[in-house]
Amino acid sequence: MDQIGARELAGRLERFPRCRLAHTPTPLEQMPRLSAHLSCVELFVKRDDCTGLGFGGNKVRQLEFYFGQAQQAGADTVLITGAVQSNFVRATAAAACRLGMACHIQLEERVPDVDGLYRSSGNVLLNQVFGATLHSYPQGEDEAGADARLGVIAEQLRQSGSRPYIIPLGPGHDPLGALGYVDAATELTGQLEQRGVQFDHIVVTSGSGATHAGLLFGLRALGNRTIVIGVCPRRDADRQRRRIAAHAQKLSRMLDVDPRITAEEIRLTDVTLAPGYGRLNAATIEALQTTARCEGLLLDPVYTAKAMAGLFHMAREGELSGRVLFWHTGGEPALFGYGRAVLARD
Ligand SMILES: Cc1ncc(COP(=O)(O)O)c(C=O)c1O
Question: Domains in the chain, ordered, with CATH?
Fold first, then answer.
């Protein structure tokens, strides 16, 4: 198995152009009251909701590498596609402002039966505050089609004199954003060394898989064997496992190190996915409210509350023990887009 030191890994990341956007290192905190509530695990949280730019979140770490490439290519406009309440597109709009670039956002109809708040508040409102140009796409599960449509908009922009750069959605591209989480793995191992702590499990949302794959890859490349469990907010565990494996293979090539991640090591649960992407269930609402009320910590309805609901489930089933790190990936602005749905249990 290939393993390298933190300094060597940092050196390989430096081969990729990067724009510093995130406030790092993010805090690593204990969650004593939530631990007492669950009574079987000692919980910690990695606060990537605190990465700073435009309400923060995991996507800020990922965007450092996309914007690095965009700037190296001389782009003046960035294009991205995502769900109507996507945090990724909102963070992109914020980064474009920071770097003096224009931003075109394509919003996909990925969630059925939504209300007016979903279409106007939360991330949608912030996209407009950041001055992004909004487009809409009628499908929500057609990644290739959504990317192709961005290509058409980019061509129109090119013809009118802009220099566009597309942040792609589909899995057929190099997972540049995952490099942000290879770097985050180095950051975490440094924090653990400083404090003399080790974790038995890390629980993280696994959407496009860039966060999960980057983190798992980075930890294994550094020789850290902590079990990483991805919670699926978008697709079932089998499909997601293939996606993470593909990302890991590409990361091996990009970083020229192969930690040989096996299928068994790509741990996933889709126990809180139903009824589907961006749609709440009772366990997710319970996790969101309990975390807020025990720790004063806000989760988002689409990703992190589903991940916390997965953590609650695994803890109650005896699948987690000892020290557990919940990796908070942000997303709080979406709370406002989901309005009263998050209070449905009160
Ligand atoms: C708040 C939040 N958490 C997690 C994720 C999933 O991250 P990834 O796409 O890297 O799997 C997203 C994706 O948009 C997100 O917005």
Answer: 6-56+175-343 (3.40.50.1100), 59-167 (3.40.50.1100)
